[in-house]
Amino acid sequence: MNLEQILTCVDIESRTNFSNVNIEQICYSSRECGPNSLFVAIKGYRTDGHDYITDAIQKGAIAIVHSSELSDYQDNIVYIKTPHSREMLPILASNFYRHPSDYLTTFVATGTNGKTTSCSIARHIFSTFGKKTALSTGVGFFIGDETVKVDRTTPESLDLQRFLRQAVDIGSEYFFMEASSHGIYLSRVAQTRFDCAAFSNLTHDHLDFHKTMENYYQVKKSLFLTDPPYTIINIDDPYGERLAGELKERGKSKILTYSFHKNSDYVLSDFQQGNWQQSFRFCGPNIDTVFHLPMGGLYNAYNASAGIIYALQKNIPLSIISTAIETYTPAFGRMNRIHHNGYDILIDYAHTPDGLLKFLTGVKGNTKNRLISVFGCDGNRDVNKRPMMGKIAYDISDIAILTHCHPRNEDNIDVLNQVRAGFPDEDHVHVFADRVDAIKFALSLAQPGDSVALAGLGHYRYVERNDQFLPYNDEDTVRQLLNLPKA
Q1: CB–CB of 379/463 below 8 Å?
Q2: Could you count the other beta carbons within 10 Å of the beta carbon of residue 304?
Q3: Fewest beta carbons within 10 Å, which of 67, 149, 314, 396?
């Protein structure tokens, strides 16, 4: 594609050595650049892409988009200066991939917890109905029979637009995706057209980034100000109730609410769970039925609701929706269960205070005897949630085992001590600096009727420590320790 086409609607301050060259690739990492590529230099929180412009040129970049002044301009390279290169990247990407979301019906879920399960259940409903679908979550990008591993909940805008184009090219009709607060704030979802946006909840997390809950809320709210045709909101969450009220005042989107406890468009009731299954009654316009979901935890009834409501708006028959809910298989790292010698091991990404509370409560509700929890907190992330999570694990677990998640660049012992500050006492708490040792100890304690809940890493296949990504996965570890075959 020629450069002039790619620059359509881009805010340009100046052009140097401009020529309408043909671009074969766009990249924001110099490592990815190849011949005839356009390199977009983005100033990040840890590194600045402007420092890698020379590397990009050496690898074949023939055009540079930048927002900082440069000390050197090579004669044979096109330079495009823009006020904010990060905000221009989604425009460049959408132009380059020919506006793929225009050819898809896209569902996006946002909230502190539940995004992956909400999107996965919604996709399963539409796939069961025979629709061609694609899915983008923190677990990966799923298109046809292909799975692409990702390193963040919401891909960078360039990667997202490429995924969308791939989905279009194989004939997908529907695209389901998560939008994290970072993804929204950093313009990763800009230039993506949404048919439906769903809000699950907003609880304590990411305050190292957003600083206040109000800032966090306003970022989430901004996703809905694009006024998609459908907006689905859990109004049992206080921020969801506020969001529904504020959006109704705008009057530009069809607002659909759901709740167990409040007057809403769709009302959930009669929740029952046992043996790692649940049922709940679901009532609304032209529907009064009971759904059966093969997952524990009240929170998963909430997670299923957004997809159910969206499917109803798209006239998918109730029989199809019911079948899809009954046959849903949890996403990798989300309430995954291994049964062994009469006890159960549950693996989940629960990494926030609310997420840990809901996960452990859900496991407890399906456990006959003791709940043994293994959990931790990430390094270089919100420190205020650490003692909160310690208190939650202490209160719900019969035996709580504290260990690491991603230490990153923090001292692991410091993180553990900050979590320990939330324990009223340490009578039934054990601390292990090594996660494998913690899991091994938990499994050694387990007896028939017990549950071992592993929280915090879920789908991750690595642990981040001192800028290294060390191979690791909770389920693989459990299977190795118990001499079970790989899944």
Answers
A1: no
A2: 29
A3: 149
pLDDT-based confidence at residue 152 (cuts at 50, 70, 90): low
Q: Find where tokens 């340490």 sit.
A: 426
The bridge status of strand 287-293 relative to strand 336-340 is: unpaired
Q: Alpha-carbon dihedral of residues 253, 141, 469, 206, nearest 10 degrees?
A: 10
CB-CB contact of 347 with 105 (8 Å): no
Domains of the chain, earliest start first:
3-96 (3.40.1390.10), 100-326 (3.40.1190.10), 336-481 (3.90.190.20)
- Sheet with 37-40, side-by-side order of all strands: 14-16, 78-81, 61-66, 37-40, 25-27
Beta carbons within 10 angstroms of residue 134's beta carbon: 24
d(CA 370, CA 385): 25
Whole-model pTM: value is: 0.92
How long a stretch of residues is the chain?
487
Coil, strand or helix at 267: strand
Cα torsion through 306, 307, 309, 314, rounded to 10: 140
Report the C-alpha gap between 344 and 328 in whole angstroms.
20
pLDDT tens-digit map of 65-99: 999 999 999 999 999 999 999 999 999 999 999 99
The tokens of 13 are what?
């301050």
- Quote the pLDDT of residue 153: 63
The tokens describing 428, both together, are 């039934």
Kind of pairing between the strands at 254-259 and 230-234: parallel
Regarding beta strands 468-471 and 287-293, do their DSSP bridges make them parallel or antiparallel, or are they unpaired? unpaired
8 Å CB contact between 413 and 420: no
Angle 298-313/318-326 helices, nearest 10 degrees? Answer: 150
Q: What is the pLDDT of residues 345-382, one digit of tens each?
A: 999 999 999 999 999 999 999 999 999 999 999 998 88
Name the phi and psi angles at 256, rounded to 5: -125, 125
Question: Taking 90 as the threshold, does the pLDDT of residue 298 lie above it?
Answer: yes
